[in-house]
Amino acid sequence: MYSQTTRSITVTVKPTFLEDQSSPTDDHYVWAYQVQIENKGDDAVTLRNRYWCITDSMGRVQEVRGAGVVGEQPCLKPGESFEYTSGTPLPTPSGIMSGSYEMEGPNGELFSVIVPAFSLDSPHEVARPN
Q1: Least C-beta-crowded within 10 Å: which of 1, 43, 92, 117?
Q2: In the prediction, which pLDDT does 112 show?
Q3: 48 pairs with which residues across the strands?
Q4: CA 109 vs CA 24, 43, 45, 70, 121: distances in Å
Q5: C-alpha span between 2 and 40 (Å, rounded)
Q6: Where is this region: Disordered (predicted)?
Q7: For the chain, what is the HEC assignment?
Q8: What is the pLDDT of residues 34-47, one digit of tens each?
């Protein structure tokens, strides 16, 4: 698991390779990632937008931006958490994802919460010695 805290908001990510949805012979590899967003602060916050940077093992980058997560813009009161699961395909057997959430505080202030970079690993990755 990967975890990072920004301004009392802790984001924890657990990626899982989905063998049954992947087809290595077709260069199609799929991961699910479970995210928990926990408000450890004193004020309620609302997740407004997401940003993802997805990089495959060949260095190709895909950026994803959008409102909320999984169709929701959750409001987290102090001590509350929100969990969701999503996924991503890659044309390579490994990669890395990182990103951020744009949060809105009680006075309408917008701030960025870092999503820790996490590794997308599969058993199909061929190790290359230096």
Answers
A1: 1
A2: 98
A3: none
A4: 45, 12, 10, 23, 37
A5: 17
A6: 80-99
A7: CEEEEECCEEEEEEEEECHHHCEHHHCEEEEEEEEEEEECCCCCEEEEEEEEEEEECCCCEEEEEEECECCECCEECCCCEEEEEEEEEECCCEEEEEEEEEEECCCCCEEEEEEEEEEEECCCCCCCCC
A8: 999 999 999 999 99
Task: Parse the chain into domains and list their residue ranges.
Answer: 2-117
Query: Side chain identity at 42, as an amino acid letter?
Result: D
- Maximum Cα–Cα distance across the chain: 53
pLDDT digits (tens, 9 = 90+) for 69-101: 999 999 999 999 999 999 999 999 999 999 999
The whole-angstrom separation of Cα 63 and Cα 60 is: 10
What is the CATH number that goes with domain 2-117?
2.60.40.1470
pTM of the model as a whole = 0.92
